[in-house]
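Technical note accompanying the year-one report. For the benefit of new consortium partners, we illustrate the data format agreed upon in the data management plan: each record pairs a sequence with a structure-token string. No post-processing was applied to the example shown here.
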Amino acid sequence: MSSVCLKPVATTERSDIVKPEISDNLDLRFMQVQFSLLSGSNLPGIEIAASFPMTEFVTTISKSADGLEVYAKFEFNDPKVLTKKHGGMKILEIKSQTTNSAFARVLFDGPVAKLFCESDDVWWVNPSYLSQSGLSLTIRGTKSGLRGVRNNINNLVTSGFDVKLSAESSYTPEFKDMLPQKQRLVLDKAIEMGYYSRPRGCTQRDIAEVMNIKQATVSEHLQSAESKIINSIGNYSPTLS
């Protein structure tokens, strides 16, 4: 049996890739933005919630000047709403349907969706959805990208919005290093017990009982940790829950 001699493949360095400066941490951030139907009442896409109690983003297909093309899941009481015209959204193709839900290819062409078409530095990720409680967007992007989209959303909604801390945020080395040990311990326990899950898996009182500390201490440590992590995105004083 003859042996095969594999020659090493010569590699050439590509010149078309933009190379950033080397840093200790990746410039990749994560935040969740939420606002009520009332706060977004001037946005055309808010009316979607009247037809669909839940509209859930699945994944992005493409983005263009026309809007954000995505796969989305809908829940409804009357299937006729699938053929109705909706501000901020066009249903392009129904991929699958049951009596009260559908999976579809959709074009979101409202002002919020178009913010993400204007930048290559921010993306919608799961979980992101529109319900009768309001819009919840989970966003990943660079520090400057998140700051830009946050400021633009602030200009679109009438009475402000909430920035929510995600459990994933606290697992990056950058965020670990910025938190004192006691804050880190309380935050780790809160994440472990589901405090940042939706719906919440526990209360601050539950965390305090497990850690054998006062509820006021838990509240203080969590607020301080949340503020440091969220403000690392940029100068902003968020409403935290």
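Partners are asked to follow this layout when depositing records. Confidence is low (pLDDT under 50) at residues 234-241.
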